[in-house]
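Colleagues,

For the teaching module next term, I've prepared a clean inverse folding example: a structure given as tokens, and then the sequence designed for it. I'd like students to try predicting residues themselves before seeing the answer, so please don't circulate the second half yet.
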């Protein structure tokens, strides 16, 4: 087992009493020094703190390590319980934590996640030596899940610094067949964002053009399939679809039934942006067996900071009442700047930001 040289020396000194300076007698069987005397374990704590940043409290505020008894003679298990922010998202941060431990020279360790009442625990267990295991439990309280979809991505990359500077798991709804469609899809995957197709659909106002790839009412099934295939072809990372405009298309049961069959065959889910009342999406999705949810809050249909902040508060309250909520905002500097600043406040209410697909998993749809 590969491990840091410093750890080996310190552990050898501790076990065999061979450290320089005043002689330390070897411990009697079953007798160990206090947990905090094993200061070389700080290296493991440093790796965790570096991975999680401000999602955990400063290391000097962490509770003390504790020894677990009973254990087999000559073996020791040390544990530490550390509070974790609700915003810590394991699929995004778990690999970073693993990399940090490997860079510190550890190989015999496990990083696992499991649910606990009212939240979840991440358990980091490092076998430092045959005689010593160190286990840290990072536990977060989670009172609700929030997903934020950023619509109208793909028009350009002018907001890329605002967008990809947000270090939380957003969902990007990307328009098809545009100059920046493929680039946004690729950058989203590189930054750990979820991608869905922002599919242009026919609106009631015929004077508004949703852009290339528009699906219209009355398209024959084979023609709709061809249009949709071309839309999704440029988005290899897309896992679902939401509608761009579509107030006429989404309220037409026959059109939605044809589209849902196409989504079912590709294993894609559908998020109704609710651009019109009385949509047929829910019934069509249920008939086809397609996973489906609808938007709860539009964040920025009024372009002012005061309005966006008010909509974010509505989103929080809906998530706390129902356990989950979906917001839709747009690829605009003001919206993205406010999200970058305000998303950390979700932790004040023990809310977690997740990709929209996690909400489908959480509600148990299939």
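(Answer key — instructors only)
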């Amino acid at each position: 087992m590969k491990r840091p040289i410093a750890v080996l020396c310190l552990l050898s000194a501790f076990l065999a009493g061979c450290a320089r300076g005043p002689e330390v007698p070897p411990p009697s069987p079953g007798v160990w020094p206090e947990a905090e005397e094993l200061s070389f374990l700080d290296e493991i704590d440093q790796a965790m703190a570096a991975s999680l940043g401000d999602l955990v409290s400063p290391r000097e505020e962490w509770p003390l390590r504790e020894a677990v008894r009973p254990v087999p003679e000559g073996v020791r298990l040390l544990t530490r319980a550390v509070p974790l922010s609700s915003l810590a998202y394991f699929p995004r941060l778990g690999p970073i934590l693993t990399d940090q431990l490997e860079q510190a020279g550890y190989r015999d360790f496990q990083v696992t996640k499991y649910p606990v009442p009212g939240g979840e625990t991440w358990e980091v267990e490092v076998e430092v030596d045959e005689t010593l295991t160190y286990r840290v439990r990072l536990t977060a309280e989670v009172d609700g899940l929030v997903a934020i979809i950023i619509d109208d991505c793909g028009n350009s990359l002018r907001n890329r610094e605002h967008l990809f500077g947000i270090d939380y798991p957003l969902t990007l709804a990307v328009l098809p067949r545009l100059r920046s469609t493929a680039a946004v899809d690729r950058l989203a995957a590189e930054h750990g964002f979820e991608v869905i197709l922002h599919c242009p659909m026919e609106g009631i106002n015929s004077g508004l053009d949703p852009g290339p790839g528009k699906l219209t009412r009355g398209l024959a099934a084979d023609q709709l399939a061809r249009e949709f295939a071309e839309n999704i072809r440029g988005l290899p990372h897309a896992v679902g679809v939401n509608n761009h405009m579509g107030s006429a298309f989404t309220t037409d049961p026959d059109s939605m039934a044809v589209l849902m069959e196409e989504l079912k065959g590709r294993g894609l889910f559908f998020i109704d942006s609710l651009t019109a009342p009385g949509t047929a999406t829910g019934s069509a999705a249920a008939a086809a067996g397609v996973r489906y949810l609808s938007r709860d809050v539009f964040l920025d249909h009024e372009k002012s900071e005061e309005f966006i902040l008010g909509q974010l508060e509505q989103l929080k309250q809906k998530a706390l009442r129902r356990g989950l909520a979906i917001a839709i905002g747009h690829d605009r500097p003001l919206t993205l700047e406010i999200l970058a600043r305000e998303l950390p406040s979700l932790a004040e209410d023990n809310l977690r930001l997740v990709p929209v697909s996690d909400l489908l998993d959480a509600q148990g749809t299939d």
